Structures are given as structure tokens and as C-alpha cells.
Amino acid sequence: MAVDATLPYDDQNIFARILRGEIPARKVFEDDWALAFHDINPQSPTHILVIPKGAYVSWDDFSARASEPEISGFVRAVGHVAREAGLVAPGYRLLANTGLDSHQEVPHLHVHVFAGRPLGPLLAR
Ligand code: AMP
């Protein structure tokens, strides 16, 4: 189910529940600002999701409302995860779906980190 990013934040979404420890996740990194965990349905050999700890629906929501420490913490976490997973040399792709046309399924901002094989063209045609 895709979401409308203009909707208010739903604190029952699956990533909010992971952040609260209500459901498990295979965590790869956590600090005060971000949590990273393996995607449950990986689309590449490495497929990690990085999420901010705050309640933000999307990149535009986050960039409009988050504090400077939240923004820098989250951006640094994405880079940290890529470095620690050994993805810099082979290369990796970041992707953040937002709203209906992108088919965002979970209404909590998340950056996909894809790697581990040649990833092909940017978008399906
Ligand atoms: P998006 O379509 O960008 O909203 O991506 C949502 C992603 O969340 C998909 O790649 C799902 O496989 C992933 N996902 C959904 N539920 C879970 C979960 N419980 N643990 C880890 N990843 C999940």
C-alpha cells in the first residue's frame, strides 16, 4: 500500500514500532539520531534501511521540521552505515521514496542503501 506523504505521521507505522522495540529488526547501527537495519525483503545482496529516530514522514517533512542535530545526525548515520558495511569501494545506491508516485509503503522517512551487485539503471522504464 502506498502512502500520501501529506498525511499526518502515523505512530503505528511499522518503523515506529521497530523504534519502540515492539517488533524485532536486524539492527546494523544505532545512535541518538538514527537506526539502521536490514530490509525484511531485500532487493539486493545488501539492502539496509536507515531511519531517523524522530517522527517524520518523508525527506521534505524531515528537512522542514527537524533540528540541525537531527539532520546532521541522520545524514552522518547513512554515511557511517555505508562505510562500515564496506560499500564505498564497490559502490552503493541511496533511495528515499516519498508519496504516491514513488510507491512509499512505510510513512516514516527511510533511506534505502542498496549494494552488492551491479544495480542497473536508475529507474525501471
Ligand atoms: P518503501 O516502499 O520505500 O516505503 O520501502 C519500505 C521497505 O520497508 C520495503 O523495502 C520493505 O521490504 C521494508 N519493510 C517493511 N516491513 C519491514 C520490517 N518489519 N523490517 C524491515 N524492513 C521492512
Q: What is the CATH C-level name?
A: Alpha Beta
CATH topology, which one?
HIT family, subunit A
β-sheet strand percentage: 15-25%
The CATH superfamily is HIT-like
Coarse morphology: globular
Judged by helices, strands and strand pairing, the structural class is: alpha+beta
The percent range for helix content is 25-40%
* Element order: H for helix, E for strand: HEEEHHEHE
Biggest sheet strand line-up? 1-2-3-5-4
* Count of the separate structural domains: 1
Distance between termini? 21 Å
Count of helical stretches: 4
Structure description:
The longest helix is centred in the middle third of the chain and has 17 residues. The chain starts with 13 loop residues before the first helix and ends in a 10-residue tail after the last strand. The protein has a five-stranded antiparallel β-sheet, covered by helices on one side. It has four helices and five strands; from the N terminus they run H-E-E-E-H-H-E-H-E. The chain has 125 residues and is an alpha+beta fold. It has a single domain, classed as HIT family, subunit A (2-Layer Sandwich). The mean pLDDT is 95. The structure holds adenosine monophosphate.
